[in-house]
Structures are given as C-alpha cells and as structure tokens.
Write a structure and sequence with these properties.
Low-confidence stretches: none
Number of strands: 2
Order of helices and strands: HEEHHH
Distance between the termini: 80 Å
Radius of gyration: 28 Å
Strand order of the largest sheet: 1-2
Helix content: 40-55%
Number of helices: 4
Structural class: mainly alpha
Shape: rod-shaped
C-alpha cells in the first residue's frame, strides 16, 4: 500500500467498516478454510484496513488531537483583519445630529 497515490487507494471508508463489522458479528472472527483448518476471518483484514484508512485521512485533515497540535495559524496582518477587528470591537460613539 505504501507509495500509492490517494486516488488509487482502495475506497474503504466508514460505511465499509460498519458493514464489515456487522458481518463479522454475525459470522464470528474465526472461519473454516476450504482445507478444513480454522483460520481468521478475512473480514478482520477489511476492518483493519478501514480503520487504518480512516485514521490516515483524519490525520490529513487535522481531525486527530496530534494533527491539530501541528496546525499553524498565520497571524499576519496583511489582509487587514486585525484593523477591522479593532474598529468593530471599539466602543460606539453616539452620533451628534448636525446643527440646523
């Protein structure tokens, strides 16, 4: 899986995870191979792959606590935001009607 582009990555998301977990709860974590040996259910691999994909995507979008701590907020005043906030947060001055 390493080195794959995101658009080539298997489409394993939350709905696939839920479906696989439901099937796993119905069938159990062990199954019989065609040779007769007891083996781990292939659904466990699907569940693990889904969890890995969801975790990776969560990190990419800053949805995990560790990823949020790496987000850098720019505080440049180039766009004038600080000046606008200063004006908006200043106390209001009552308007004096012009003399007649």
């Amino acid at each position: 899986m390493a080195g794959r582009r995101p658009d080539q990555e298997p489409k394993r998301g939350y709905s696939t995870l839920i479906t696989a977990q439901e099937k796993l709860s119905e069938t159990g974590i062990l199954c019989k191979a065609p040779s007769g040996y007891v083996m781990q259910s292939p659904l466990l691999a699907v569940v693990n792959q889904c969890v890995e994909t969801i975790t990776r995507r969560s990190r990419e979008f800053g949805l995990t606590p560790a990823a949020r701590s790496r987000i850098i907020a720019h505080t440049d005043d180039d766009d004038g935001t600080q000046e606008i906030m200063r004006i908006l947060s200043a106390p209001r001055v009552p308007r004096v009607p012009p003399p007649v």
